[in-house]
Each structure stands twice: as structure tokens, then as C-alpha cells.
Design brief:
By secondary structure, the chain is of the alpha/beta class. The protein has a single domain (8-241), classed as NAD(P)-binding Rossmann-like Domain (Rossmann fold). The protein has eight helices and seven strands. A seven-stranded parallel beta sheet has the order 3-2-1-4-5-6-7, with helices on both faces. Helix 4 (105-129) runs parallel beside helix 5.
Length: 246
Amino acid sequence: MASLHGKVAIITGSSRGIGAEVAKTLAHAGARVVINYVENKSAADALCNEIATEGGECIAVQADVGNPAAVKQLFDAALEHFQQIDILVNNAGILLFKEIADIQDDEFDRILTVNLKSVFYTLREAANKLADHGRIVNISSTVTRVMMPKYGAYAATKAGVEQLTRIFAREMGKRGITANAILPGPIDTELFRTGKTSVDIERMAAMSALGRIGTTDDVAQVVLFLVSDEAAWVNGQTIGVNGGII
């Protein structure tokens, strides 16, 4: 396992699902972690307690990352507690599983704010507060590479995340900071299962060359590599983590 001893990581939207698995994985590798949540304080506190029980260091910080003032408070809280920030994992996101013709204005505005604006706000804050030679991983989605009905709005936000990642990688290279995006395929989380039937899920599992949907650990292990010293030469990339869907 890569060593992250001495590093501090912020993981947005990390009280459950992929974010929680990433937080645990980075903590096991030695990182001190900042768990970010919006409403589920009990889940965030329970995750921090689990990490602490296993010898890690963790704080839970409430912040709506779709709000730029809250993002600033999140980064400032991390700096106040740990005195540095080395890693940012942008995981916070929501899924809108509807055909474009049926999407309401407020639904589109919300997914833009949670999935895309939040990444812009955290990257802007990281530009001034992330340590030199830091690591950024943004969570996109394999749906940006396929034309799947009912994923139009979601795919649009994630495509924006990928482009922000590429440009930010170029802008921050002078400080040795890398930024990459990973594109999970279907991952067995509450978010993924929302709005889908068992037939939908079976169909998506069959799209993978490995014949299954992924696990949160499948994603977390790739994040661990990308934030480690071993990935210092990987920068500005969009990497599929999807079992061979595409």
C-alpha cells in the first residue's frame, strides 16, 4: 500500500458511499482525513470514530460545497486543525436519472451546483491553500463516454468536471500539483441504485467486460494510487474505472 503518512486529505461528500470508502482507504495509508458532509452528521461522526478506532486521525466538517463561502470555511477548518492540506478528492455529487425533456429548471440548476460548481469552488480554493506537490482527484463518470438515456444532465456536469481537471492540471503544474479525474462505471451505492429497477442494474452490469457492477473499494484503490508519490507523473488524465465498459 502507498504511504500517505504526514499528508492531510479533504474528501468532499464523504459521509457515505464512495467518499466514505476513499476516506477509510486514505486513512489506512496514513493520511489525516477531513470528512465533509452536508446533512448526515451522524454518519460522518460514525466514520470518524471508526477511523480513530483504527489509529487514524479525522475530523468531520459540515459544508455545502455548492456554496463558495462554505467551501472556504471547509478549507480553513482543515488548515486550523491540521495546519496543511495535501490532497483534495472531489466526490460530492447527486444523480438525476431523467430524460432531458422531463427535467425541470430547478432540477438542472441543482445538479449543476452540486456536481460542477462545487468542483470549481474547491479547485479555486485549492489553488491558494493546497501544499506544493499536492494531489487532486475529481470524480467524474463513465457516462461521459457513452450515450445513455436519462443521464443527459448528469453527464453534462461530469464532462465539465473533466475539462476543469485538465485545465487546472496545466495551471498548477508549476507547483508540482497534479490533478486527475477518474470515471467510475456503475458502482454499488445508494446513489447509483436511486431510480433504477433490478432490470436496469442487471443491464448495466452486463455492459462491463467483467460482468458485474463495481464496488466502492474498486474506486478507492485507484484514488489511493493517484494521490500517492508513485503517481507523480500522472497528470491531467481522465481514467476509466469501470471494468471494461469502454
